[in-house]
Structures are given as C-alpha cells and as structure tokens.
Amino acid sequence: MKAIGIDIGTTTISGIVLDTEKRQVLEARTVQNGSFIKTEHEWERIQDVDVILDKAEDLVKELLACCPEADVIGLTGQMHGIVYLNRNGRHVSPLYTWQDGRGNLSSDGHKPLTEQVMDKTGVFIASGYGLISHLYNLRNGLVPQEAVSLCTIGDYLGMVLTGRKYPLVHISNAASLGFFDVQRGGFRKDAMKEMGIDPSILPEITEDFTELGRYQGIPVTAALGDNQASFLGSVGIHKNILLLNMGTGGQISALSDRYFEAQGIEARPFVKGKYLLVGASLCGGRAYAVLEHFFRSYAKTAGMEEASQYAVMAELAERGMKGADRLKVCTAFNGTRAEPGLRGSITNIGEDNFTPESLTFGVLEGMTRELYDMYCLMREGTDLKAERLVASGNGLRMNPVLQEICSGMFGAELILADFKEEAACGAAVSGTMVKGIMEVDTHEMTIQMLPEEQGN
C-alpha cells in the first residue's frame, strides 16, 4: 500500500509518498509556504489561503504523477489557526495563524482577551488559538458577513480536494481551537456563549480517522493536528519515548494513558483513550537566531562584512561546553503561553564567564531547560519516564552541542527522527488507519528514508 501525506506548515509545505509494506518514504518534496500577508499591525500574523492551496494542490498532483497507484491521501497542517468559510464551503478570509497575537490585546481598554476569558469562564485559552482570534474579530467587526463556519488550514485543504461544503474536523485539530474539553471530547459551548460566541460557527468533529471524500478517485482522510502527526510519524504509539522539536518554536510531546494538565502542559487528544502531553516554548529555536543576529550586528558595526555567524557560534558552543562556571540564560524571550509578558534573562554573570562562548552555550542550555522543566511537570503528574528522545526540527538536527545538552539533561539516549518530513509521514500513516482502507500497526512502524531519495 502506498499513502500520500501532505503537511501545511507555517514556513514550508511538505509531501511524501509512504510505502507501508517496505516502511520507506519513496518520494519527498518540500516547498516554501511564502504566504504571509504584510499588515500595519505588528501583532497580526495572517497568511494568504489561495497561495497555500495552490502550492499544496500542486504538491498533491506532483506526488500523484510520481505514484499514480497511491491508495490514500492523508493530511495535516499547522494547528490552532482558523479560516472562515461560507455556505458553499469556500474561504472568505485569510488564515489567522497560531502566531497571531490579537488574543493578547484588550477589547475593552483593560485586560487582554485571554485574561478576560479566564476571569469570566475559568477557561485558559492562549493567543493564537482559533476561537480567541474569532472572539477578537467578533468584538471588532472583523468576521466576514458570509462566514458560517471555520476550520484549520489542513481541514480546508481536505474540503477543497473532495468538494465538501462543510468542515469535518478530527478531534486533534478541534481541540487546538480552544474552548475544548479534552476529557469529554467536545467544545465548551456554555463558556463560549458566556463570551458572546455563537457555537453554530463550530465545525463537525470526529474522534476517528475518517474519510472525507475522494480526489481523482483516491480517498482523502480528515486532517490530523500537526503535533499528533509528527508524533505518529516519528515515534508511533510508544510510551516513554519523548519527541523534542526545536524549530520556529520548541516543543516536547509524550504519549500518556492518563489525562494530565498543569501550567504550560496541555493534554491533547491523540488516538482513542490516549493523550499527547505537550509543552511548548514560544521562542524555542528562535532564541539561537536572536543570538546570531546579535553577533552579526556587532560584526557589522565593527566594520566586518555582514555574514552568517552560525559556524562561529558552533565553535563557541563547543568551547562553552567545557566551562565549569557557566552563565544561566532564560530563553523565554517571547514569554510563555501562560505568561506572555515574561521575558528572558542572563544570570550568574561573573568577571571570568561573561564571554561569547559561555553566552552561546547558555542560550542552548536555556532552550533545553524550558522543555526539560515541562517534562519534570509531566513526570510528577504521571508515570512517564524518558527512556529515549526522538529529535526533530532543524534547530536540533543541525546542532550537535544542543543534541548533547538534551541527552545529558534528560538522562536519555537521543536519536534523530529518520527524516525531516515526520508530520507528512504521520499524515500518511493516519490515512492508512482509516477503517475500511487499511489498519497499520503503529507500534511496529519504523519509517526510513531511502538514501537515494534524501536529496529530493
């Protein structure tokens, strides 16, 4: 059986062809998303839906040209964000992405919207979650008149491919919109009404991996949340194997039979009866990019040619790792989901350790500690134990010192995910798990990239 998986990421759109019998990725393609829309608001992060769809559909066509015998198309994409739809199931808005900051704004001149929701309903919802963006839009007259429903961008691609007029959303994506009771498996409609949100805008949800319809005769399945897809594609369904991602942000994910939440830790629906415990650092790999910009700016001011500093920083990190009295760096440069106003810091500064190498190593260690602290909360509340780490994201893939820091801090072996497109792979796997198509034993699923295909 061969399955196509498509992943609509924030910066890239990826697609793969997975051979489930050989457990190999036969084809892999990645294109730049490139759809951000410039606006006058610094807090606004929106993307052009038409640009995304054109690129995603072209990717589907290209993969089908390589593999016309494909049996199923599975989908995933960036969670939390929303697209508004009209009665014909077509978009009438841009994509309000997970990075959008309107939820941290005030609509009454006082508290941010997120705090207003917490105070009135007791529901925590972070800025960037679709329904807090919707609430801001409601209060500011920004919801299109034609809008009758909303969904994530992965869900919308499924609608376009199959001609559906109303969204059917997997519970993993539904929960990412906010106002969702994960234990009960449904939206908190009473809380939404308290805030003035009409629940009729909500999509239909499903707990199963479900067929949406057909594209050129090939079944297309409901989109899986990208966090769950990445876990499925790189870890499978295994306990005590943690997925660490360091890219645009940072994230730690672990499978649990037990529902558990704490400050900064979410329990996200996965497969029936199982949850993904997830912690996210908002800055993540960007903290290292901020440091690179600092060094680059200094070099330019000192009269040197402006150039990337990452190669120099790699040497600095190596030397910084050998130091005993190190700088302590908090890399919450963009705050946290629970405390968006929090900022980073550098402590333990001494006359001998205030050096570029100590700072570079300290930033990498700080990036790791944010995720490790989240793991400690998970471990205290469940029977979770880190037996192995699976690393994904270029921030980890391309930084051996960061890999060593992670392995040492967590006290577990770290291995790299077999290939970069783990979310697209998870989407393909979820497609094969649709009842009536094929059931894949994900406990035994090990995905490998063919050497000759790695350059694609």
In short:
The chain is an alpha/beta fold and 456 residues long. It has 13 helices and 24 strands. It has helices at residues 49-66, 113-121, 130-139, 153-162, 171-175, 189-194, 226-234, 286-301, 310-320, 356-381, 394-397, 400-410, 422-432; strands at residues 2-8, 12-19, 24-32, 46-47, 72-77, 83-85, 95-96, 149-151, 168-170, 180-181, 186-187, 204-206, 211-215, 218-221, 224-225, 241-246, 250-256, 265-269, 275-281, 328-330, 345-347, 388-392, 413-416, 448-449.
Mean pLDDT: 91
Strand content: 15-25%
What would you call the shape? globular
Q: How far apart lie the N and C ends?
A: 21 Å
CATH class bucket of the domain at 2-228 and 420-453: Alpha Beta
Trace the largest sheet across and list its strands. Answer: 15-5-1-2-3-24
Give me the count of strands: 24
Helix content: 25-40%
Low-confidence stretches: 439-456
**Main sheet specs:** 6 strands, mixed
Q: What is the fold-level CATH name, i.e. the topology of the domain at 2-228 and 420-453? A: Nucleotidyltransferase, domain 5
CATH architecture of the domain at 2-228 and 420-453: 2-Layer Sandwich
CATH homolog superfamily of the domain at 2-228 and 420-453: ATPase, nucleotide binding domain
Structural class from helices and strands?
alpha/beta
